[in-house]
Amino acid sequence: MLVKVFGAAVQGIDATLITIEVDVNRGTKFFLVGLPDNAVKESHERLHSAIHYIGYRFPRQQVTINMAPADIKKEGSAYDLPIAIGMLAGSEQIVTNNLSDYVIMGEVSLDGSLQPIRGVLPIAIMAKQQGFKGFILPQANAKEAAAVDGLEVYGMVNLSEVIEFLNGQRQVEPLRIDAQEEFFNHLQQYDLDFADVKGQENVKRALEIAAAGGHNIIMVGPPGAGKSMLAKRLPSILPPLTLQEALETTKIHSVAGVLDNKDSLVTVRPFRSPHHTISDIALVGGGTNPQPGEISLAHNGVLFLDELPEYKRSALEVMRQPLEDRKICISRAKNTVEYPASFMLVAAMNPCPCGHYGDPNHACTCTPTMVHKYLSRISGPLLDRIDLQIEILPLPFDKLTQHQPAEHSENIRQRVVRAREIQAQRYKDNPEIYCNAQMTSKMLRQYAQIDDSSMMVLKAAMERFHLSARAYDRILKVARTIADLEESETIKVNHIAEAVGYRNLDREGWGG
Q: Is residue 183 domain-resident?
C-alpha cells in the first residue's frame, strides 16, 4: 500500500516541503531513497526498536521510502516520525484518511518517545503558507511552532500518542498562544542597566550614538576599565525588537538549535560574545552541512568581540563583507545558503600586550615596536568599517566610590528610540535601510549635506589624520546620528567635530 506523509527540509532559514512516499509491498527488502544523509538512514534501526517497543509490528514486507523532491539533501533525525507513521499506515496498522492535513516531524527514541528538533519555526511558517491544517511535532517544540497564527499545533510526547491521535482514538487540543501578547509581555526585560556603571560618561555617550545610528564601535583601554561591563549593557538601550524582527531572529536561533524551548519567540535583542579562539566557520557560519555562525545569531542584536587582536586574522577579515552587506552567503558545490547578519559590532581591546599603554596608574612595559605590532593585528580595512573608536581609562578612586546616581538605560533608550523614529521617517521609501549606518553614498549626498564651515573642519581632519574615503563616509554618518539625537535637521560644526573625535585610532596612526 502506498501512502504519503508530509515533512520539511530547512535550507538557510526557510523550509521546503518534503513528501515522504512509503510503499509497503511484497518482498523482504528495505529501501530509503531521496538523498538522505546518514542520520536519516539510521532511522531504520531506531524505528525497528521503537515500533516493537510500543506494541506494533515493524513491516516484514518490502518497504520502499522515497523522500521527494529527491534532489534536496535530507539531513538529521527529524524524519523519524513521518517515516514511522508512513510505514505503519502503509502496512495498514494505522487507519487514517487525514495524513494530508498535517506536517509531521520529530526524532524517535528507542522507546518511542519524541525528542526535540531544530528549525521548527520555519517549518511551521511553511506549513501555514502551504495550507496545511496542523503540525504534529515533539511537545518540547510545540510552543515555538504555536507562535504561527492560523496553524493547529499538536505537541506529542511519544509515538503512541501520535498513532492514537491519527487513528481517532485520542482527542488532543491544539496548543494556542497569543504570539503578540507573549511578545509584548517579555519585551524590554533586561538584567543589566547603565545605572550600574559609574563614570565613563564619554564612553556612554559614544555607545548612545552607536545605538541611535546602528554604528559599529571599538573601545580601547587597559584591563579593568569597564569595556566588557559597558558592552554587555548596550542591548538595554537599543530600540525594542519589532514582532517581525523577533520572528526573523527566532528562525535563525531555531535553525541553529540554540532556542530555549521555554520561549516561543526571542523577545530581546541578542548579545553574542564568542571567545577569541573561535574558528572562521563558527564565526561566520558554514561547515559540511551549513549552519548559521555567531554573526547570524547576533542578527538584530550585538556581536561583542573582546580582546579583538587575539582573534585570528582570517576570522576577522572574513567579517568585512558581512559588515557591509549585512548578510552572509555560504557557497558549496551543490548549494548556496544565505543567512542574514545585520548586527552591531562592538569590539574591545587592550592598547598593547601588557595592557597599560596610556594608563596613568600603571607603567607600560612594552616597546613602541611591540605596541605597533600588537595593534597591527587589526587591519586598516576592518578598522575603517568601525564607525566609532573610543579610548577608555580606569576610574580614579574618588569617582569609583561616589554615590551620585547614574542615568538609567530606560532614559537613554528613549532618546535612542526618538532618533531611530526620525531615521525611519527619513528612509521610509527605502525598505532595506532603517538606520544611518546603512546609508549608501547616494543617500549621504542627500541626507548628510554640510555647510562650508563644517566642510573646512572635516577637510582639516582628513588631511591631518590621513583618513580614507570610507572613514570620510563614516564621519558623515556619525555626524548625522548626532544631529538626529539633538533633533536637528542640519548637520552643524559641533556635530562634525564630535564625529571626528571618535576616530581615535586613526589619530594615533593605529592599525595595519
A: no
pTM of the complete model: 0.88
Q: 520539511: which residue's cell?
A: 8
Average pLDDT (65-82) is: 94
Q: Residue 107 — very low, low, confident or very high, per pLDDT cuts 50/70/90? A: very high
- 9: cell is 527540509
Residue 400 in contact with residue 361, Cβ under 8 Å? no
CB 463: neighbour CB atoms within 10 A?
Answer: 9
Residue 423 to residue 430: CA distance in whole angstroms: 11
Percent of the chain residues topping a pLDDT of 70 = 96
Single residue among 127, 143, 177 that ends a domain in this structure: 177
Q: Which pLDDT score, from 0 to 100, does residue 506 have? A: 67
Residue 396's domain comprises 194-507
Continuous segment of H or E residues that includes residue 171: none
Is the Cβ–Cβ distance between 218 and 386 less than 8 Å?
yes
Answer yes or no: is pLDDT of 53 > 70: yes
What number is the average pLDDT over the span 450-464?
90
Q: What does the block give as the cell for 23?
A: 510503499
The secondary element (H helix, E strand) that includes residue 4 is: strand 2-11
Contact 397, 205 (CB under 8 A): no
Residues 6+ apart with CB under 8 A from 345: 216, 217, 303, 305, 319, 323, 385, 386
Number of domains the chain contains? 2
What's the pLDDT band for 464 if we cut at 50, 70, 90? confident
- Do 214 and 169 lie in one domain? The reply is no
Per-residue pLDDT of 28-43, as tens digits, reads 899 999 999 999 999 9
- In 3-state terms, the chain is what percent helix, strand and coil (to 5)? 40, 20, 40
| Greatest CA separation for the chain | 88
Mean pLDDT computed over every residue of the chain: 90
For residues 220 and 505, the answer to whether their CB atoms sit within 8 Å is: yes
Could you count the other beta carbons within 10 Å of the beta carbon of residue 168?
11
For residues 104 and 90, the answer to whether their CB atoms sit within 8 Å is no
Task: Give yes or no for residue 166 having a pLDDT over 70.
Answer: yes
pLDDT tens, position by position, 355-364: 888 788 888 8
* Cβ pair 187, 413 in contact under 8 A: no
The C-alpha torsion from 243 through 284 and 105 to 67, rounded to 10°, is: 130
What is d(CA 174, CA 177) in angstroms, rounded to the nearest whole number? Answer: 10
Residue 509 has pLDDT above 60, yes or no: no
Q: Which of 177, 207, 232 marks a domain boundary?
A: 177
SS3 label, residue 33: strand
Complete DSSP assignment for 48-73: HHHHHHTT-----SEEEEEEESTTSP
**Residues in contact with 51: Cβ distance below 8 Å, sequence separation at least 6, in sequence order:** 57, 58, 84, 87, 88, 112, 159
